[in-house]
Every structure is written in C-alpha cells, then in structure tokens.
Amino acid sequence: MLNSRLDRLTDYPFQRLNALLTEPPGEAPVNMTIGEPQDLPPAFVAEILSSEAAGWGKYPPMTGSVALREAIAQWLTRRFGLGAASIDAERHVLALAGSRDGLYQVAFLAGAEDHRRPVALLPNPFYQVYAGAALLAGLEPVFVPAVPETGFLPDFAGLPAEILARARLAYLCNPANPQGAVAPAAYLGDLVALARHYDFILAVDECYAEIYDGEPPPGALAVSETDGFDKVLVFHSLSKRSSAPGLRSGFVAGDARLISAFSRMRAYGGAAIPLPIQAASAALWRDEAHVEASRARYRAKFDAAQSILGRHPGFRRPAGGFFLWLPVGDGEAAAKRLWREAGIRVLPGAYLARAGQDGVNPGEAYLRVALVHDLDITTTALTRLARVLTAEGVPS
Q: For residue 75, what are the domain limits?
C-alpha cells in the first residue's frame, strides 16, 4: 500500500540526533545544529505584511507576481553581472515556497521513466533533501566524495562515462553545505559543459551565496549565460540571505525550457507564496543594506571561531555559508560529549553523508557547527566547545 521507495530513506539527521542525545545537558543548552539564522529580518518586512494584509484573502499566482519575478531578475543581473537582457522575468524565473521546495521537485522534473537505470549525482556530504528527492523520483543516487583531497568539491567529471551517460540530474551546493567551500568559476564552467555533453540537469543550490568571508561566490548563471542557461537551474532563498526562514520564499531560475516545464509541474502540486509574502520578498530582493549588515555579523563570528578554535587540528575558516566543518576524530562521540559536558548541541558529520564503496563515510570524523546565534552566544558556545575538545587531548 505504501511507496516501497520510502524504505530506502534513512532517518532525517535531526531525528538521528534526538536518538543520540538522550542524556541531560551539562550546561544551559545552545543549539548549533540547524541552519536557522537567529537574526531578525529587516523591520520593513513586518510593515509590508501588515499593509498588504488584504492579500491573505486571495489565491496567489503559483509562478510569483510580476513584481516579485522582476525584482528577482534585477537582483540576479546585479549580483552576478549578467547582461541587461539575459534574464527575462517571465521566461527564466519561477517563485518557490523556499528553495527546499524546488530542490525536491527538480528530481521529478528530471524524470526516470524514459532512461535506463537513471542516476542522480550528489556531493557527499550533502543536503539530505537531494537524496530523498532522487530516491522517491526513481533516480539512483551516486554519492561523489567532496573531501579535503578534492577541495571539498565533488569530482563529477571523474566518474566513469557509463555512469555519466545515465545521469538525469546533478546537485551542487555552492557555497557547500556543510564544508563552506566555494566553487570557482572555472569549476562551474566545466560542470555546465559536462551537463550539456551528457544531457542532464544541473541543479545548483546557491542559498548560501550571500554569506561569504571574502570575494562573492561566482554563480552558475554567469558561466552559462552565453548559451541561454542551457541545462542549468539555480536555487535561491531568503531564509539565509535575509534571515527570514519563516517566510518560506525562494526561487528557481535558468534554462527557459526547464522553467516552463517546472511551472507546468508545479501547477499540479506546488505551494504558492501568499501575496503579502510575495510583496515583502520583492522588497527584500531589492535591498542590499540588510544583507551587508548580516554579512558583517557573520564575519565577526568567523573571527571569533578562528580566535577560539584556530589551533584545533584541521580547523578551516569557511569561505562561504555559516557552518564550521570541524574534524574531531569521531563525530558521534564528540557530539555526545559536548552535549553531556557543555550543553552544546552539534550535528555529527556522518549524518550528512553516506559510506562510499570503500565503506568510509566522509563525514564520520567531523562535526557541523552552525554559527547562527548572535556574537555573544556564539563566543560562549565555542569557548565551551573548545574546552571540552581540549580536555579530551585535542589541542585547540
């Protein structure tokens, strides 16, 4: 009676963590597991939601209002240096109820019924929605290590031609979740060429693209612009950029043919963004001041992490995103110890990855630590974390 593919899904990482951390916390708990920004969005969001309250009584357009899609197209053009006429709000942009919504549905857009033993290519570790979507859409996930030896980026081009020929979809997160690595433009360009050669959709999750330490991460649209974004879709969200996860507002943009098909599919099973939220979203995409202020706050937290943990073996300051990908030897054991002794709740890296053919899980030796609280809370938590790791004989 039930879809048998559900049996192949593992428990979601936070369910596994709940089962792991059954002891009481050693100190007042601080949750550093989930990528949920704790800053407030700009005050004008609440003002717009109030002034547009009449829109709660209307069915919203599934594709997004013209004003929202135009604001998104203009932002993409500014942010990624696209040509003035490259992005057409009508043909290249589709609003989503958060980027997760689209990242899940794109696997069904890729389809499996007309392809022999179809596969989806995933970085390993990865955002868990990628694997769940692939499995439920009938695509076999192929997990490609994103480890120190590869710069924490997956080497899709190094896969056997036989696997690439069966690919219908490839996911990439840039900057990477959880490692914080940023893919260079040349890497993205090579990946776009690979997708076109083997005829698969390249789904680039860029939801962390506005949280970076140095130079702005390049975007997949910029490297695919000259050929009309053929085979390329990018996904963005206001959850991270604008500290507004509760709005559930994002978009997908790229290949006009794919956007048209995506829109047709979502007409049957998508969730539309309410009109007041669309109005607030358009204002957020038009405003950069709040994003720059947020980025400065994250840089201050990166500074604190480097000061407190910089001597920890393998510590890396992330180039993008807001996670530390911290080597600790045994992620599960370290997570239990940090909770039991210091009340710090962090996520074992193994829960974000799968064992490869060699039996090794590339996340097993790591913790993912989310720097989403304010600077004071973050500093206190990282100090406790360093104290526990040092007590275990690991210098920090």
A: 43-287
